[in-house]
Amino acid sequence: MKPPLRPRLAPARFVTGPGAAAGPERPRAAWSGREKRALLAALRAQAARGLPTDLQPRALRERLPRRSEAEILSFLCRLRGRAAREAVRTQYRHCLEQQRRRRAQVPAPIEVWLELAETLAEGLEEVTAAAFSQVLTVAATEPLTLRHSLPPLPDSTAVPPDRGGSAPGDPATPPPQPPAPEGFTVNFQRVYEYLARLCLRSKVPPLPPGESAVVLALLGSLPQELGALDRVALHSHLRGSYSALTAPRPTGTDPAAPPTPATLTPGWGGVGLCPLNLFLVPLRLLARVGPSG
Fold first, then answer.
1. Residues 133 and 229 grouped into a single domain
2. pTM, 2 dp
Protein backbone atom coordinates (compact mmCIF):
# COMPACT_ATOMS: atom_id res chain seq x y z
CA MET A 1 0.00 0.00 0.00
CA LYS A 2 1.42 3.32 -1.07
CA PRO A 3 1.56 6.24 1.37
CA PRO A 4 -0.53 9.33 0.55
CA LEU A 5 1.00 11.96 -1.60
CA ARG A 6 2.48 14.93 0.21
CA PRO A 7 3.32 18.26 -1.43
CA ARG A 8 7.02 18.83 -1.66
CA LEU A 9 8.21 22.37 -0.97
CA ALA A 10 11.63 23.69 -1.78
CA PRO A 11 13.69 24.95 1.16
CA ALA A 12 13.42 28.65 1.81
CA ARG A 13 17.06 29.19 0.82
CA PHE A 14 16.25 28.14 -2.74
CA VAL A 15 13.11 30.30 -3.14
CA THR A 16 13.59 33.32 -5.39
CA GLY A 17 11.30 36.06 -6.61
CA PRO A 18 8.66 38.22 -4.90
CA GLY A 19 7.71 35.53 -2.41
CA ALA A 20 11.26 34.91 -1.29
CA ALA A 21 11.78 35.12 2.45
CA ALA A 22 13.86 38.04 3.66
CA GLY A 23 17.30 37.19 4.88
CA PRO A 24 18.09 37.35 8.59
CA GLU A 25 18.40 40.90 9.85
CA ARG A 26 21.85 41.84 10.89
CA PRO A 27 22.15 42.70 14.59
CA ARG A 28 22.33 46.41 15.08
CA ALA A 29 25.56 47.70 16.52
CA ALA A 30 25.33 49.51 19.82
CA TRP A 31 25.44 53.27 19.69
CA SER A 32 28.79 54.60 20.75
CA GLY A 33 29.28 57.65 22.91
CA ARG A 34 30.61 59.57 19.94
CA GLU A 35 27.49 58.83 17.89
CA LYS A 36 25.22 59.87 20.77
CA ARG A 37 27.06 63.18 21.13
CA ALA A 38 26.83 63.76 17.38
CA LEU A 39 23.09 63.05 17.46
CA LEU A 40 22.61 65.44 20.38
CA ALA A 41 24.52 68.17 18.54
CA ALA A 42 22.36 67.62 15.44
CA LEU A 43 19.15 67.85 17.46
CA ARG A 44 20.30 71.06 19.11
CA ALA A 45 21.19 72.51 15.73
CA GLN A 46 17.69 71.74 14.43
CA ALA A 47 16.13 73.35 17.50
CA ALA A 48 18.31 76.45 17.11
CA ARG A 49 17.19 76.88 13.50
CA GLY A 50 13.55 76.79 14.55
CA LEU A 51 12.62 73.85 12.34
CA PRO A 52 9.22 72.13 12.71
CA THR A 53 8.69 69.91 15.73
CA ASP A 54 8.83 66.81 13.50
CA LEU A 55 12.31 65.31 13.32
CA GLN A 56 14.30 65.67 10.13
CA PRO A 57 16.08 62.29 9.83
CA ARG A 58 17.81 63.26 6.60
CA ALA A 59 19.51 66.22 8.28
CA LEU A 60 20.43 64.07 11.27
CA ARG A 61 21.97 61.43 9.01
CA GLU A 62 24.44 64.00 7.67
CA ARG A 63 26.24 63.81 11.01
CA LEU A 64 25.73 60.06 11.34
CA PRO A 65 26.73 58.60 7.96
CA ARG A 66 27.02 55.06 9.35
CA ARG A 67 23.42 55.05 10.54
CA SER A 68 20.34 54.80 8.36
CA GLU A 69 17.30 57.01 8.83
CA ALA A 70 15.35 54.04 10.20
CA GLU A 71 18.04 53.35 12.80
CA ILE A 72 18.09 57.00 13.87
CA LEU A 73 14.28 57.17 14.25
CA SER A 74 14.21 53.85 16.11
CA PHE A 75 16.88 55.04 18.54
CA LEU A 76 15.05 58.31 19.18
CA CYS A 77 11.79 56.41 19.71
CA ARG A 78 13.48 54.27 22.36
CA LEU A 79 14.83 57.38 24.05
CA ARG A 80 11.38 58.96 24.12
CA GLY A 81 9.84 55.84 25.63
CA ARG A 82 12.54 55.66 28.27
CA ALA A 83 12.03 59.35 29.15
CA ALA A 84 8.25 58.88 29.38
CA ARG A 85 8.62 55.84 31.64
CA GLU A 86 11.04 57.71 33.89
CA ALA A 87 8.67 60.70 34.12
CA VAL A 88 5.73 58.46 35.05
CA ARG A 89 7.87 56.60 37.58
CA THR A 90 9.03 59.87 39.15
CA GLN A 91 5.49 61.21 39.37
CA TYR A 92 4.27 57.95 40.89
CA ARG A 93 7.01 58.06 43.54
CA HIS A 94 6.10 61.69 44.28
CA CYS A 95 2.43 60.76 44.78
CA LEU A 96 3.35 57.88 47.07
CA GLU A 97 5.59 60.15 49.12
CA GLN A 98 2.81 62.71 49.48
CA GLN A 99 0.35 60.03 50.62
CA ARG A 100 2.91 58.69 53.09
CA ARG A 101 3.49 62.14 54.55
CA ARG A 102 -0.25 62.83 54.75
CA ARG A 103 -0.82 59.61 56.66
CA ALA A 104 2.10 60.27 58.97
CA GLN A 105 0.82 63.73 59.92
CA VAL A 106 -1.49 63.79 62.93
CA PRO A 107 -4.52 65.91 62.00
CA ALA A 108 -5.31 68.88 64.19
CA PRO A 109 -8.53 68.69 66.24
CA ILE A 110 -10.19 71.37 64.12
CA GLU A 111 -9.42 69.30 61.00
CA VAL A 112 -11.07 66.25 62.58
CA TRP A 113 -14.20 68.24 63.43
CA LEU A 114 -14.33 69.84 59.98
CA GLU A 115 -14.17 66.44 58.32
CA LEU A 116 -16.89 65.14 60.63
CA ALA A 117 -19.08 68.18 59.95
CA GLU A 118 -18.67 67.75 56.18
CA THR A 119 -19.72 64.10 56.50
CA LEU A 120 -22.81 64.99 58.54
CA ALA A 121 -23.81 67.92 56.33
CA GLU A 122 -23.39 66.07 53.05
CA GLY A 123 -26.03 67.48 50.73
CA LEU A 124 -27.12 70.14 53.28
CA GLU A 125 -24.52 72.83 52.58
CA GLU A 126 -26.90 74.93 50.50
CA VAL A 127 -29.67 74.59 53.07
CA THR A 128 -27.34 75.65 55.88
CA ALA A 129 -26.01 78.63 53.93
CA ALA A 130 -29.53 79.77 53.03
CA ALA A 131 -30.66 79.49 56.65
CA PHE A 132 -27.73 81.56 57.93
CA SER A 133 -28.38 84.13 55.22
CA GLN A 134 -32.03 84.42 56.28
CA VAL A 135 -31.05 84.85 59.92
CA LEU A 136 -28.61 87.63 59.05
CA THR A 137 -31.15 89.30 56.75
CA VAL A 138 -33.67 89.40 59.58
CA ALA A 139 -30.99 90.74 61.95
CA ALA A 140 -30.35 93.60 59.52
CA THR A 141 -33.87 94.93 60.10
CA GLU A 142 -34.04 94.44 63.87
CA PRO A 143 -34.71 97.70 65.79
CA LEU A 144 -31.76 97.06 68.10
CA THR A 145 -29.47 96.78 65.10
CA LEU A 146 -30.61 100.11 63.74
CA ARG A 147 -30.33 101.90 67.08
CA HIS A 148 -26.72 100.82 67.64
CA SER A 149 -25.61 102.32 64.34
CA LEU A 150 -23.60 105.53 64.45
CA PRO A 151 -25.59 107.70 64.09
CA PRO A 152 -28.76 105.70 64.94
CA LEU A 153 -30.92 104.80 61.96
CA PRO A 154 -34.68 105.45 61.91
CA ASP A 155 -36.80 102.39 62.58
CA SER A 156 -39.64 102.18 60.09
CA THR A 157 -41.37 99.45 62.13
CA ALA A 158 -41.39 101.42 65.40
CA VAL A 159 -44.82 102.22 66.88
CA PRO A 160 -45.46 105.97 67.10
CA PRO A 161 -45.68 107.21 70.70
CA ASP A 162 -48.99 108.18 72.34
CA ARG A 163 -50.11 111.73 72.66
CA GLY A 164 -48.86 111.81 76.19
CA GLY A 165 -45.28 111.09 75.01
CA SER A 166 -43.21 107.99 75.24
CA ALA A 167 -42.28 106.49 78.54
CA PRO A 168 -38.59 106.25 79.42
CA GLY A 169 -38.72 102.49 79.01
CA ASP A 170 -40.67 102.55 75.75
CA PRO A 171 -38.91 100.30 73.19
CA ALA A 172 -39.79 102.80 70.46
CA THR A 173 -37.55 105.40 72.09
CA PRO A 174 -33.95 104.95 70.99
CA PRO A 175 -31.49 104.87 73.88
CA PRO A 176 -28.97 107.66 74.13
CA GLN A 177 -25.92 107.04 71.95
CA PRO A 178 -22.41 108.35 72.49
CA PRO A 179 -21.44 111.00 70.00
CA ALA A 180 -19.79 109.51 66.92
CA PRO A 181 -16.30 110.68 66.05
CA GLU A 182 -16.19 113.28 63.36
CA GLY A 183 -16.56 111.63 59.97
CA PHE A 184 -16.91 108.08 61.40
CA THR A 185 -20.21 106.30 60.74
CA VAL A 186 -21.25 102.65 61.13
CA ASN A 187 -24.33 101.21 59.51
CA PHE A 188 -24.89 97.80 61.09
CA GLN A 189 -27.60 97.06 58.56
CA ARG A 190 -24.92 97.02 55.86
CA VAL A 191 -22.76 94.72 57.98
CA TYR A 192 -25.52 92.12 58.34
CA GLU A 193 -26.45 92.35 54.67
CA TYR A 194 -22.79 91.89 53.74
CA LEU A 195 -22.51 88.75 55.88
CA ALA A 196 -25.81 87.42 54.50
CA ARG A 197 -24.52 87.68 50.94
CA LEU A 198 -21.25 86.03 51.90
CA CYS A 199 -23.17 82.99 53.17
CA LEU A 200 -24.75 82.62 49.72
CA ARG A 201 -21.38 83.16 47.99
CA SER A 202 -22.83 85.97 45.95
CA LYS A 203 -21.01 89.08 44.82
CA VAL A 204 -20.76 91.66 47.60
CA PRO A 205 -19.98 95.36 47.27
CA PRO A 206 -16.99 96.73 49.19
CA LEU A 207 -17.79 97.95 52.69
CA PRO A 208 -17.09 101.52 53.81
CA PRO A 209 -14.29 102.03 56.36
CA GLY A 210 -16.57 102.03 59.40
CA GLU A 211 -18.32 98.76 58.55
CA SER A 212 -15.02 97.17 57.51
CA ALA A 213 -13.57 98.00 60.92
CA VAL A 214 -16.56 96.30 62.59
CA VAL A 215 -16.14 93.09 60.56
CA LEU A 216 -12.40 93.05 61.29
CA ALA A 217 -13.08 93.53 65.01
CA LEU A 218 -15.58 90.64 64.95
CA LEU A 219 -13.02 88.31 63.40
CA GLY A 220 -10.34 89.40 65.86
CA SER A 221 -12.61 88.83 68.86
CA LEU A 222 -13.37 85.17 68.06
CA PRO A 223 -10.52 83.73 70.20
CA GLN A 224 -11.56 85.89 73.15
CA GLU A 225 -15.23 84.92 72.78
CA LEU A 226 -14.37 81.21 72.64
CA GLY A 227 -12.33 81.59 75.80
CA ALA A 228 -15.33 83.14 77.56
CA LEU A 229 -17.47 80.00 77.12
CA ASP A 230 -17.95 77.21 79.64
CA ARG A 231 -15.10 75.18 78.20
CA VAL A 232 -15.41 72.28 80.64
CA ALA A 233 -19.08 71.62 79.86
CA LEU A 234 -18.56 72.27 76.14
CA HIS A 235 -15.59 69.88 76.06
CA SER A 236 -17.61 67.17 77.78
CA HIS A 237 -20.52 67.58 75.36
CA LEU A 238 -18.30 67.49 72.27
CA ARG A 239 -16.49 64.38 73.47
CA GLY A 240 -19.83 62.65 73.94
CA SER A 241 -21.03 63.78 70.51
CA TYR A 242 -17.83 62.58 68.85
CA SER A 243 -18.06 59.18 70.56
CA ALA A 244 -21.68 58.78 69.50
CA LEU A 245 -21.05 59.84 65.90
CA THR A 246 -17.94 57.69 65.40
CA ALA A 247 -19.12 54.58 67.28
CA PRO A 248 -19.08 51.37 65.20
CA ARG A 249 -22.45 50.36 63.84
CA PRO A 250 -23.86 46.81 63.68
CA THR A 251 -23.03 44.87 60.54
CA GLY A 252 -25.62 45.13 57.80
CA THR A 253 -26.62 48.73 58.44
CA ASP A 254 -25.70 51.69 56.32
CA PRO A 255 -23.39 54.04 58.28
CA ALA A 256 -24.60 57.01 56.25
CA ALA A 257 -28.28 56.30 56.99
CA PRO A 258 -29.73 58.33 59.89
CA PRO A 259 -31.16 56.40 62.84
CA THR A 260 -34.82 55.54 62.35
CA PRO A 261 -36.84 56.56 65.41
CA ALA A 262 -39.88 54.68 66.51
CA THR A 263 -42.15 57.61 65.64
CA LEU A 264 -41.10 59.79 62.75
CA THR A 265 -41.46 63.51 63.40
CA PRO A 266 -41.75 66.12 60.68
CA GLY A 267 -38.89 68.48 59.91
CA TRP A 268 -35.27 68.00 60.85
CA GLY A 269 -36.24 66.01 63.93
CA GLY A 270 -37.13 63.15 61.60
CA VAL A 271 -33.52 62.69 60.50
CA GLY A 272 -31.99 63.18 63.91
CA LEU A 273 -29.98 66.34 63.27
CA CYS A 274 -30.30 70.01 62.45
CA PRO A 275 -28.09 71.49 59.72
CA LEU A 276 -27.59 74.66 61.78
CA ASN A 277 -26.43 72.66 64.82
CA LEU A 278 -24.92 69.41 63.57
CA PHE A 279 -23.41 68.46 66.93
CA LEU A 280 -26.59 69.38 68.86
CA VAL A 281 -24.77 71.79 71.17
CA PRO A 282 -27.18 73.20 73.81
CA LEU A 283 -27.60 76.97 73.58
CA ARG A 284 -26.70 77.37 77.25
CA LEU A 285 -23.17 76.18 76.42
CA LEU A 286 -22.79 79.01 73.90
CA ALA A 287 -23.40 81.75 76.50
CA ARG A 288 -20.68 83.60 78.36
CA VAL A 289 -19.66 82.21 81.72
CA GLY A 290 -20.59 84.38 84.67
CA PRO A 291 -18.06 85.88 87.06
CA SER A 292 -18.53 82.90 89.41
CA GLY A 293 -17.39 80.51 86.65
1. yes
2. 0.48
